[in-house]
Amino acid sequence: MFTEYATGTNSFGELQRKATDWGLRTHKGNPVALQTLANILENPFYCGLMRVKGSLYLHAYPTLIDRQTFDACQAVRVKPETRQQAVRKTKEDFILRGLVTCAISGRKATCDLKKGRYVYLIVRDPSTPDRKVWVKENVVLDQVRDVLRAIHIPEGLLAEMMDYLRQSHEAEKDFHHDRIRDLQKESEELTQRLDRLTDLLLDRSITRDIYDRKHQQIAERQQEINYLLQDSHEADSQFKIALSGLISLASKAPDLFDRSNNAEKRLLIGFVFSNLTLEGPTLGYSLRKPFDLLVDLAKSQEWRPILDALRTTHKGEVTSLYGRLAEHMSLTV
Predict the structure, then answer these.
(1) Best CA proximity match to 258, nearest among 99, 109, 138
(2) At the N or C end, where does the chain have fewer CB atoms within 10 A?
(3) Is 108 helix (H, G, I), strand (E, B) or coil?
(4) Total domains, the chain
(5) What is the pLDDT along the chain (333 residues), one digit of tens a residue?
(6) Which domain holds residue 202?
(7) H helices within 66-154, ranges in order?
(8) Which CATH number characterizes residue 15's domain?
(9) d(CA 124, CA 107)
(10) Does residue 61 lie within any of the structural domains?
(11) Which of 57, 86, 115 is at the close of a domain?
(12) How far is CA 284 from CA 96, 143, 273, 278, 287, in A?
C-alpha cells in the first residue's frame, strides 16, 4: 500500500480497491475501511518510529518500509498537486484515468471508450465552460511523448555524464567516510551521556522532570544521527546507482513508454509528472525532480552543474524516486 500510494497515481478509493484485491482484511475479516487505510499511511510506526504523547521515538520492532517511502507518502497526502481525487472504477484499463485534471473545472478528466476502440478524455470547453469536449487519448499521449523526448539524453552525452559521475563519486568517498566516523563518534558520546544521566537520576541528583527533558533532547539527536548515518551510507553506495539509473531511464524514456503496457505507462507518467492538466486538447504539466532538471539537457553545454545539484541538493529525492520506481518496473541501469 505504501509503495503504491507513494507513486502519486492512486486515490484512497483506488488504493482501497487494490488492498481488497490483494486480500488485505481487518482482524474481523472485513475489507479495510478508507479511514483505516488513511490511518495506516499516516502512521510512522511502520518505518521505525513510535508516536508517544505527541513525540516520536525509535522503536526496536522490525520495520515494513523505509523512511523515504513513508515521507514520499506524506508528500502525496498533504500536497494538493499530488493528492489524487477519488476516481470512479472503470472496466477498461485507461492509461490516463485519474491522472489528468480539467484546467477549467478543476475536476479529474473522465475517460470513455467509443466504438470499442477509441478512447477519449472528457473535459470542459475553455470557451464555453458549460459544454463538454471530447479529446482523443492519442492526442494527449503524443504530448506526453514530446515531454519524454525533451528529457531524452543521447547515447554519446549519456556516456560522458556517466564518466563524470564515476569520477565525482570517487572524489566523495573520503568525505563520506569522515562524515560517518564523526557521526558514529557523536552517537557513542550521546550513549555515554544517557548512562550518566540515568546514574544522576538513580542518585537523586536530578529530578524526574529534568531527566525526562534531557533524555528527550539526547534521544532526538540520536534519532537524527541515525537518519544521517543512513543517508551517508546510501550516498556512498546506493546513491550512485540511483542517480545513474534515473539518468539512464531518462535517456530511454520515450522508447520505454512505447514498449510498456497500460499499467506501466500509468506508473511512468506518475513518476515523471507531478501534475497534468487539459485545457481543451492542450496539455499542461509540471515534472517531478529530478526530471524537471533534465529537460533539454542535451541542448545545454552546462550540464555538469545540473549533475552536481542532483548529487547534493536533490540527493534524497533522487534516491527515493529511483527506489520506488525500481520496485514497480524492470529497469536496466
Answers:
(1) 138
(2) C
(3) strand
(4) 2
(5) 888 888 777 777 888 888 898 899 988 888 889 899 999 999 999 988 888 877 777 787 888 888 878 888 888 877 544 444 444 445 577 899 888 999 999 998 999 998 888 999 999 999 999 999 999 999 999 999 999 999 888 888 888 888 877 777 665 666 667 778 888 899 899 999 999 999 998 998 999 899 888 888 888 888 778 777 766 655 555 667 777 778 888 888 888 899 888 888 888 898 889 889 999 999 999 998 778 888 887 777 778 888 777 776 776 677 667 766 666 655 443
(6) 169-236
(7) 67-78, 137-150
(8) 3.90.1750.20
(9) 10
(10) yes
(11) 86
(12) 14, 9, 10, 6, 10
Domain assignment present for residue 189? The answer is: yes
| Residue located via cell numbers 557513542 | 188
Look-up: residue for cell 470499442? 116
pTM, entire model: 0.61
Rounded to 10 degrees, what is the CA torsion of 125, 128, 132, 137? -10
CA neighbor of 278 nearest in space, from 96, 91, 32: 96
Report the sign of the C-alpha dihedral through residues 209, 215, 219, 221, in that order: positive
Rounded CA separation 70/43 (Å): 9
E strand or H helix at 118: strand 118-124
CB 266 within 8 A of CB 99: yes
* Rounded Cα–Cα distance for residues 15 and 156 (Å): 41
Residue 171: per-residue pLDDT = 57
Residue 259 placed within a domain = no
Sign of CA dihedral 156, 244, 326, 83: negative
As a residue count, the chain comes to 333
C-alpha cell at 292: 524537471
Choose the final residue of a domain: 236, 256, 282: 236
